[in-house]
């Protein structure tokens, strides 16, 4: 029988703990909040009160296990660099719209009404720096489509040092 390395064993244990629900869901990750503004192609200003997902741990947690989300609330994922992004809906009971935004603030794709609890991959389609998750169907209600612009610079919280 093959022996697993310590790294592989640790990775499997971490995945087991994460997916088995042994750790309390929301108690493990805290998010700072702020306001962001997006201008639609029609010139309408949309304001969202968002939680900032800035660290790998925060991005991994995202909106998992949330059962409600206010109309003008969401979560902004900052990946720290421009790259192809893939996301999924595992452990997320809400349908979400995923708004993929490039480094310059341009909305490049809106994945509307994603399927709750789905493990299907939702991709950005193009390299992006940010992804904004809002309540499913909200983008269409607001006229938020590709071509809209995130108002930059963002007032992100400063990185916390240990």
UniProtKB/TrEMBL annotation:
<dbReference type="InterPro" id="IPR003795">
    <property type="entry name" value="DUF192"/>
</dbReference>
<feature type="signal peptide">
    <location>
        <begin position="1"/>
        <end position="27"/>
    </location>
</feature>
<keyword id="KW-0732">Signal</keyword>
<dbReference type="InterPro" id="IPR038695">
    <property type="entry name" value="Saro_0823-like_sf"/>
</dbReference>
<dbReference type="Pfam" id="PF02643">
    <property type="entry name" value="DUF192"/>
</dbReference>
<protein>
    <recommendedName>
        <fullName>DUF192 domain-containing protein</fullName>
    </recommendedName>
</protein>
């Amino acid at each position: 029988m093959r022996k697993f390395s310590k790294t592989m064993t640790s990775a499997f244990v971490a995945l087991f703990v994460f997916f088995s629900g042994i750790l309390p869901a929301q108690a493990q990750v805290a998010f700072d909040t702020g306001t962001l503004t997006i201008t639609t192609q029609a010139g309408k200003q949309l304001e969202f009160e968002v939680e900032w997902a800035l660290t790998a741990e925060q991005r991994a947690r995202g909106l998992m296990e949330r059962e409600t989300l206010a109309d003008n609330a969401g979560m902004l994922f900052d990946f720290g660099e421009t790259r192809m992004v893939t996301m999924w809906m595992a452990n997320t009971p809400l349908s979400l719209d995923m708004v993929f935004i490039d480094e310059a603030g341009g909305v490049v794709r809106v994945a509307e009404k994603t399927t709750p609890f789905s493990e299907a991959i939702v991709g950005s389609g193009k390299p992006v720096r940010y992804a904004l998750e809002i309540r499913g169907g909200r983008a269409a209600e607001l006229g938020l489509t590709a071509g809209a612009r995130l108002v930059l610079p963002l007032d992100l919280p400063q990185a916390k040092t240990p």
